[in-house]
Automatic annotation (TrEMBL):
It comes from Piloderma croceum (strain F 1598). Residues 1-95 form the Protein kinase domain. One of its GO terms (biological process) is regulation of MAPK cascade. One of its GO terms (molecular function) is ATP binding. It comes from the Eukaryota. Pfam families: Pkinase. GO terms for cellular component: cytoplasm. This is Protein kinase domain-containing protein. Gene3D superfamilies: Transferase(Phosphotransferase) domain 1 (1.10.510.10).
Length: 128
């Protein structure tokens, strides 16, 4: 599936650490929108859009904080040599203003509990 693939991998098939930064940007969009960019397109079309230099963005980008938009813009630079590094992203305002690790752990725990409860059969189904 090409949806998370960096443009340079589509072009030359060789791995570089910059590809992980691209994928981080795509996964970040997926976390917000529940699917990666171009997911509504068939894989071939998505591959062409990515390879053609189209920079993926949030569908309703104006609804999000500018720190997130800037973070995504740093991750999703088409030219791998101009794309931010992991060290640079660690200093980005979006991450600097993020919640503490403990808060994140608690939020993830709550979400896991909620997801687990949604997958359990209802008491009525068990009684049958």
């Amino acid at each position: 599936m090409p949806y998370w693939t960096a443009p340079e991998f589509i072009a030359n098939g060789k791995y570089s650490p910059a590809m992980d930064i691209w994928s981080l940007g795509i996964v970040s969009i997926e976390m917000v929108e529940k699917q990666p960019p171009y997911f509504d397109k068939d894989p071939h079309t998505a591959r062409e859009l990515i390879a053609g230099g189209g920079t993926p963005t949030l569908k309703d980008w104006q609804a999000f904080p500018w720190e997130l938009i800037g973070f995504l813009s740093s991750c999703l630079v088409g030219n791998e040599f101009k794309r931010a590094t992991a060290s640079e992203l660690c200093l980005h305002e979006f991450l600097a203003n993020a919640c503490s690790t403990m808060t994140l752990v608690l939020l993830l725990d709550l979400e896991l509990q909620r997801s687990f409860e949604l997958t359990l059969p209802s008491k009525q189904m068990i009684a049958r």
